[in-house]
Amino acid sequence: MFLVGLTGGIASGKSSVIQVFQQLGCAVIDVDVIARHVVQPGRPAHRRIVEAFGTEVLLDNGDINRKALGDLIFNQPDRRQLLNAITHPEIRKEMVKEAFKYFLRGYRYVILDIPLLFETKKLLKYMKHTVVVYCDRDTQLVRLMRRNSLNREDAEARINAQLPLADKARLARHVLDNSGEWSVTKRQVVLLHAELERSLEYLPLRLGVLAALAGIVSLLYLLTRCLLP
To answer: How far apart are CA 104 and CA 215, in angstroms?
Structure first.
């Protein structure tokens, strides 16, 4: 099994592309969902966040107030790094658990939906393939204004707050161009899925696990023979 990191930008159509992969039967892990899960009350990251930032980052029900926490770390790199040091290891643990479940179920590859894949770069080294859902800036702007009922100035501000899609496209191994008709984009997704399914890059891990299991079985057999009279 191998990992495929998928990202995009605001109003690029990433969520729609993910839905197509899921309809094709692909395994998808949403890193944003995991990030929210690891900071739930009772989890180690929740306790450490409260210890580091105080109870003012909590809602009345004990959940993390994401807006309050965001305001605290805004323009404060040291505090942002502290938060990342608390949450990122927990996120990686959950990712490994989810990916291992899919490995046991026989999936050849797993898609990780990672909005900041190229911005943080923390998870890039684990990805065998990287995919960007791209659209040209004008299309992105029009879609965002229509979707969020924004004026042009506000929409441009939101787009400018992210790494440009053109830059992400240059960094990615695969680009799904969602600038035009949806049928064209969907066909690109289907073709990419077929390419990834044909890939033999899943074999090294699977063979490695089988070899390790065979070694354990052999060791148990030898120990049993030695212990028997």
So the answer is: 19
Q: Is 42 exposed, middle or buried (0-12, 13-18, 19+ CB in 10 A)?
A: exposed
Fold designation for 2-202: Rossmann fold (3.40.50)
Q: How far is CA 214 from CA 80, 144, 163, 170, 220, in A?
A: 45, 54, 47, 43, 10
Tell me which amino acid residue 56 is: E
pLDDT of residue 159: 93
Q: Around Cβ 219, how many Cβ atoms within 10 Å?
A: 10
- Assess whether pLDDT exceeds 60 at residue 228: no
Residue boundaries of the structural domains of the chain: 2-202, 203-229
Cα 189 to Cα 171: distance, rounded to the nearest angstrom: 19
